[in-house]
């Protein structure tokens, strides 16, 4: 049954099929995740619109993009090699930003590429 009302951020996860295609696997030990979407605007002003828009540009939406980020705690038992292999080989994977509840709405990128992997080790 789908969730209702406000969704607790604790329940939202980033899932990927990087390890096993066609199987969603949550990125393990996640501490935070986010999705950001943007659209490039393309200018459509022409000689007949210069003064009619009161000096304002005229634009229409162009190409769109999305970025999904995830921070997680490192654990030896959680194999990150699959994510690195996708990054290193430049292969795509399916990435979803969703809850584990069946029927909940979610954002899905049909083909996503891992463009950045970072590992750090702060004190404690």
Features:
single chain, 124 residues, mainly beta, 4-stranded antiparallel β-sheet, two-stranded antiparallel ribbon, 6 strands, 37% strand, extended
Question: How would you explain this protein's 3D organization?
Answer:
The protein is mainly β and 124 residues long. The chain has a domain of 78 residues. 7% of the residues lie in helices and 37% in strands. It contains one helix and six strands. It has a four-stranded antiparallel sheet with strand order 2-1-5-6, with no helix packed on it. Strands 3-4 form a two-stranded antiparallel sheet. A hairpin with an 8-residue loop joins strand 1 and strand 2. It is extended, with a radius of gyration of 20 Å. The chain starts with 12 loop residues before the first strand and ends in a 12-residue tail after the last strand. 6% of the residues are buried. The model has no long low-confidence stretch (mean pLDDT 82).
């Amino acid at each position: 049954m789908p969730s209702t009302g406000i969704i607790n951020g604790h329940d939202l996860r980033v899932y990927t099929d990087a390890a096993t295609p066609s199987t969603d696997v949550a990125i393990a030990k996640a501490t935070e995740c986010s999705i950001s979407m943007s659209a490039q605007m393309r200018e459509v002003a022409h000689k007949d619109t210069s003064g009619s828009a009161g000096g304002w540009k005229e634009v229409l939406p162009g190409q769109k993009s999305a970025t999904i980020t995830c921070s997680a705690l490192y654990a030896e038992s959680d194999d990150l090699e699959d994510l690195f292999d996708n990054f290193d080989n430049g292969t795509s994977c399916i990435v979803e930003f969703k809850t584990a509840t069946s029927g909940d709405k979610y954002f899905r990128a049909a083909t996503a590429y891992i463009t950045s992997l970072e590992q750090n080790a702060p004190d404690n």
